[in-house]
């Protein structure tokens, strides 16, 4: 390890300040463009010792767990960046990914994210000699930082921390680390533990007693199995009540979900036959079914069942059909796509490569692409453009405040 003084020239995609040293780029966490910093250099990573020229874009972090000089949690990367350059950074993640695929000039301003909106958080937990450790991992390590506050989490999750801790403690057996996904639902907190060793009868009883004594916990599951469910967890997808399965995917903030839904609904308009691909528990399908018949396709059985049940229990929706299908291996073919006026797709980070190849050859009039990865979105848009589609807009949506992740909705037509 050596000491050097460097000047940061830009912010990298992972939120590090990047300086150019004689051996190539040096990545410095918590440093901003324009700043001159003395660093302890380890390989091509620097740790700030002192800053002599402070950027005007620097902001005071809101959370005590962000402080790099203390035991900082790795949940946030960019709390030290003021809001205007922060939003420019997020927008540029999309702009740069599209540019690299020859797609220019279509990116709208970012739909912002406020503090206190995150309704889903994934905690790490472990029993120690001093008691239960519950928190978030320090960046790029397995070390758990115990959490006392979190400005991005919803008030429901924050006020539920004592109950979450008590349930985690009742689940914890041995010193192994496990993950606890906490989702705030309309009926209470939904807690899904994963990576736990199978619980014996005594441990199960302890979890049940803890949940019944705690306030505000709707359900606890371990490795996908429901242990106790005082209330059926319910979420609202555009006026349709859905009970998602334990640990199922859900958009991390309701505000981002609503923004995405509004964009794609305005584009799809009154299309009579709509296909929703990678449909999850029906976040978009159930909203789309207010005006058109919807076929929802998804790889996982349980969310699809929740979607189907919600559609059957709700008055005033057009017909909703569901299909379990692996869209990476068996995308809908050009022939199958013929019956739809509009297609919505919202794949995992890997994107929808196989499916867009079929879509690019199809006659579907309108497409809405929702994505959590600008790189695979750009690749997929390129395929659709080469197949004759025009991109009308791309809107970045900040769903993961102070992280380096960004969502985007692209609207296309032919
Ligand atoms: C980003 S989520 C979107 C879910 C839903 N649209 C929503 O907004 O809640 C991606 C979804 O794709 C599903 N998925 C992942 N791989 C898949 C595959 N190979 N075939 C079909 N669905 C898949 C996941 O189960 C998940 O529900």
UniProtKB/TrEMBL annotation:
<comment type="similarity">
    <text>Belongs to the class I-like SAM-binding methyltransferase superfamily. RNA M5U methyltransferase family.</text>
</comment>
<keyword id="KW-0489">Methyltransferase</keyword>
<dbReference type="InterPro" id="IPR010280">
    <property type="entry name" value="U5_MeTrfase_fam"/>
</dbReference>
<keyword id="KW-0479">Metal-binding</keyword>
<keyword id="KW-0949">S-adenosyl-L-methionine</keyword>
<keyword id="KW-0408">Iron</keyword>
<dbReference type="Pfam" id="PF05958">
    <property type="entry name" value="tRNA_U5-meth_tr"/>
</dbReference>
<dbReference type="GO" id="GO:0032259">
    <property type="term" value="P:methylation"/>
</dbReference>
<dbReference type="GO" id="GO:0008168">
    <property type="term" value="F:methyltransferase activity"/>
</dbReference>
<dbReference type="InterPro" id="IPR012340">
    <property type="entry name" value="NA-bd_OB-fold"/>
</dbReference>
<protein>
    <submittedName>
        <fullName>23S rRNA (Uracil1939-C5)-methyltransferase</fullName>
        <ecNumber>2.1.1.190</ecNumber>
    </submittedName>
</protein>
<feature type="active site">
    <location>
        <position position="372"/>
    </location>
</feature>
<feature type="active site" description="Nucleophile">
    <location>
        <position position="372"/>
    </location>
</feature>
<keyword id="KW-0004">4Fe-4S</keyword>
<feature type="binding site">
    <location>
        <position position="298"/>
    </location>
    <ligand>
        <name>S-adenosyl-L-methionine</name>
    </ligand>
</feature>
<keyword id="KW-0411">Iron-sulfur</keyword>
<feature type="binding site">
    <location>
        <position position="278"/>
    </location>
    <ligand>
        <name>S-adenosyl-L-methionine</name>
    </ligand>
</feature>
<dbReference type="InterPro" id="IPR029063">
    <property type="entry name" value="SAM-dependent_MTases_sf"/>
</dbReference>
<feature type="binding site">
    <location>
        <position position="346"/>
    </location>
    <ligand>
        <name>S-adenosyl-L-methionine</name>
    </ligand>
</feature>
<feature type="binding site">
    <location>
        <position position="251"/>
    </location>
    <ligand>
        <name>S-adenosyl-L-methionine</name>
    </ligand>
</feature>
<dbReference type="InterPro" id="IPR030390">
    <property type="entry name" value="MeTrfase_TrmA_AS"/>
</dbReference>
<keyword id="KW-0808">Transferase</keyword>
């Amino acid at each position: 390890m050596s000491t050097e003084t460097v000047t940061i020239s830009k912010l990298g995609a992972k939120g590090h300040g990047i300086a150019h040293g004689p051996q190539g780029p040096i990545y410095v966490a918590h440093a901003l463009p324009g700043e001159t910093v003395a660093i302890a250099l380890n390989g091509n990573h620097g740790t700030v010792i002192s800053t002599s020229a402070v950027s005007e874009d620097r902001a005071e972090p809101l959370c005590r767990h962000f402080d790099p000089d203390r035991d900082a949690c790795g949940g946030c990367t960019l709390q030290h960046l003021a809001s205007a350059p922060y939003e420019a950074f997020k927008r540029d993640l999309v702009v740069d990914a599209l540019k690299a695929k020859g797609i220019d000039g279509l990116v709208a301003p970012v739909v912002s994210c406020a503090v206190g909106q995150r309704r889903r958080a994934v905690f790490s937990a472990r029993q120690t000699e001093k008691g239960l450790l519950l928190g978030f991992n320090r960046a790029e390590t397995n070390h758990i930082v115990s959490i006392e506050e979190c400005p991005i989490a919803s008030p429901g999750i924050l006020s539920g921390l004592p109950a979450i801790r008590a349930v985690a403690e009742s689940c914890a057996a041995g010193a192994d680390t496990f993950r606890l996904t906490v989702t705030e639902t309309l009926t209470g907190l939904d807690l899904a533990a994963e990576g736990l060793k199978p619980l014996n009868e005594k441990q199960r009883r302890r979890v049940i007693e803890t949940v019944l004594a705690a306030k505000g916990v709707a359900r606890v599951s371990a490795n996908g199995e429901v242990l106790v469910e005082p209330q059926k967890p319910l979420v609202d997808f555009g006026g349709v009540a859905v009970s998602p399965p334990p640990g199922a995917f859900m958009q991390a903030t309701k505000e981002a979900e609503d923004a995405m839904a509004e964009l794609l609904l305005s584009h799809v308009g009154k299309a009579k036959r709509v296909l929703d691909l990678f449909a999850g528990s029906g976040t978009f399908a159930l909203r789309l079914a207010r005006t058109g018949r919807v076929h929802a396709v998804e790889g996982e059985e349980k969310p699809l069942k929740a979607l189907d049940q919600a559609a059957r229990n709700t008055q005033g929706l057009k017909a909703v059909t569901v299909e379990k299908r692996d869209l990476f291996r068996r995308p809908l073919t050009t022939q199958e796509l013929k019956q739809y006026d509009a297609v919505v797709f919202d794949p995992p980070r890997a994107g929808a490569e196989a499916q867009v190849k079929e879509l690019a050859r199809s006659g579907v009039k309108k497409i809405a692409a929702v994505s959590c990865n600008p790189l695979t979105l750009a690749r997929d848009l390129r395929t659709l453009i080469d197949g004759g589609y025009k991109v009308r807009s791309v809107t970045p949506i900040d769903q993961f405040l102070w992280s380096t992740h960004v969502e985007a909705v692209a609207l296309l037509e032919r």
